[in-house]
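My current task is to audit a protein record that another person submitted. I need someone to confirm that the token line plausibly describes how this chain folds. Take the sequence as given and treat only the tokens as open to question. This is what I was given:
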Amino acid sequence: MLLLITWLINALALLAVPYLLHSVQVDSFGAALIAALILGFVNTIVRPVLVLLTLPVTMLTLGLFILIINGLMFWVVAQLVGGFHVAGFWSAVGGALLYSIVSWALSTLLLSARGR
């Protein structure tokens, strides 16, 4: 049940990003659900491999290269999912950053209230 709630929270966070960054567009709630699902799979499977392969660069940039990796994952998912559009790579980096912040905030608010 917690997995489904987290998936819905991430879809809602993805729907909120276009209101904060106009270069990201989500056409429908269904597209947000699919994009959130694929983002979860990509971040679970592909991202750890990329982080490991780019570890020297990440250490040289004191961890800031992780933002580039997150933007790359966001951009790749936007290329794969119809109804989810990102204007460019730097828009994807900004969108990934906003998506992470909104998702964290919603998770904190909704899941901590659920635990009480």
User: Anything to note?
Assistant: Helices lie at 2-20, 29-53, 55-60, 65-80, 89-115.
